[in-house]
Amino acid sequence: MTVETNEELNPKLLEAIFRTSKKTIQEYVREIERYCRYKSIQGQTTVEGTVLDDRSKLIDLYDACVQQDAHLAGVLETLESQIIGERYMLARQNEKGKYIKDVAETRKIQGTQFTKIIKGIVEAKLYGYTALEILPTLDPRTGKLAEVNQIERRNVLPDQKRIVRRSGIWSPGWSFLDPKYADNYVLIKSDDLGLFSSTTPSILAKKFTVANYVNFSHTYGQPIIHGKTESDNIADRKRLANDIAGAAQNKVIVTGLNDEVDIKTFTMSNSEKIFTSLIEMVDKDVSNLILGSESMAGAQQSYVGATRAHQDVFRDRVESYRDYIENVMNEMIVPRLVKMGYIKDGLEFKYSKRLEMSNQDQIDLYKFLSDKYEVAPDEIEKTFGVVVGKQLNLEMGGGSTSGSGGSNAMSDEEYYRRYGHRRGEKAANFYQERR
């Protein structure tokens, strides 16, 4: 049985080694093998005092892919844009099951520090775990949380629920279960290695594919300039070669009377498709895994129906992320904030159930609603930023109906031409059965 250190936990003093350059697939395979050995023996081994679940080198691989792959970084930015903003609230459920937003309390969770919490929860699905430090102090200028810190993942043993001063060394360390730290330190786990465990080998392979593609383009993508001279003098030949080499910059070359300059271009063999296809395949897999659709990450679709189908899958995937955030918030974060006295008791973290639509879809919806329902000017201003006055079709009596008081009512002459009788006159029924 190990003795816990009396040293106070200070995340700023944690020591970790970062190795995020020149990563290979072999390193990834080695870390997966090590994790498999840990999972195989964890039930039969006394873990107290022994570092078993050290994922620091795996985190190096994950971070290397995020730092060095522009497509993955873009996918993560797209995901982040869908989970932060004014989409969430603190609400209380009434007797009918409807959530009533508490405006004053919701303002407390709309700040930069709270955004760190939401991003940390989502990253728990990507990296496999996230450790957060939530300090109870408030910013005197804003009245919101003053400091939320993400604890370096290399210093966290997630399955062993422990923070260590130096990555890979058990002591000194601190337990998430220690009552002294339980209220301010929270460990969020996905119970696996995270989604990045599936994207990492593909991105590492893509990295080498791109390098090979650059070499291929450098070798076969540039034409060869061939110079021919009748002179057998080596000095003359070198002078012509130097003149040809400088012609690309000088734009002028002067040759002898019988000298020839010819540009040799390669016939297209589509050999580059080997590289571009592999790169496109990796980007597609990454987009589908994290966003549910490659078209939402910028890929082009052949027809409109495919784009709409991908949008539906993307919205469902984003909805699953939001459900996960709601559950973690209400089970692990909100109770701690209530205990700190930061927010009131009895409130739940909820995403608004508004329909996610494109700008054109929103315009079409408001156009449809405004002819059938009274739409408050505040709603138009909040959605489109346009200040409007009273709704005209309501004042003129009935929107686009064809009644006499409607805004689009036809004249008496047009009515007569269309129906063959004046307004108010009873038309003859020529189909009435004769007696």
Morphology: flat
The tally of helices reads 13
Mean of all residue-level pLDDT scores: 82
The counted number of beta strands is 11
Biggest sheet overview: 3 strands, antiparallel
Strand and helix order: HHHEEHHEEEEEEHEHEHHEHHHH
Bin the helical content: 40-55%
- Strand percentage lies at 5-15%
Rg over CA atoms, rounded to whole Å, is 34 Å
Task: Report the span from N to C terminus.
Answer: 109 Å
Strand line-up across the major sheet = 2-1-11
Computed structural class: mainly alpha
Ranges where pLDDT stays below 50 over 5 or more residues in a row are 397-407
Can you walk me through this structure?
Among the domains are: 15-199, no CATH class; 222-265. It is mainly alpha-helical and 435 residues long. It has helices spanning 25-41, 56-68, 70-83, 103-108, 112-127, 196-220, 234-250, 273-290, 304-340, 359-370, 377-384, 392-395, 412-419; strands at 88-93, 99-101, 129-134, 148-150, 156-157, 162-164, 173-175, 185-189, 224-228, 260-264, 348-351. α3 (70-83) runs parallel beside α8 (273-290) and α6 runs antiparallel to α8. 45% of the residues lie in helices and 10% in strands. It is flat.
Helix-strand layout with pairing:
Layout: H1 25-41, H2 56-68, H3 70-83, E1 88-93, E2 99-101, H4 103-108, H5 112-127, E3 129-134, E4 148-150, E5 156-157, E6 162-164, E7 173-175, E8 185-189, H6 196-220, E9 224-228, H7 234-250, E10 260-264, H8 273-290, H9 304-340, E11 348-351, H10 359-370, H11 377-384, H12 392-395, H13 412-419
Antiparallel strand pairs: 1-2, 1-11, 3-4, 3-8, 5-6, 6-7, 9-10
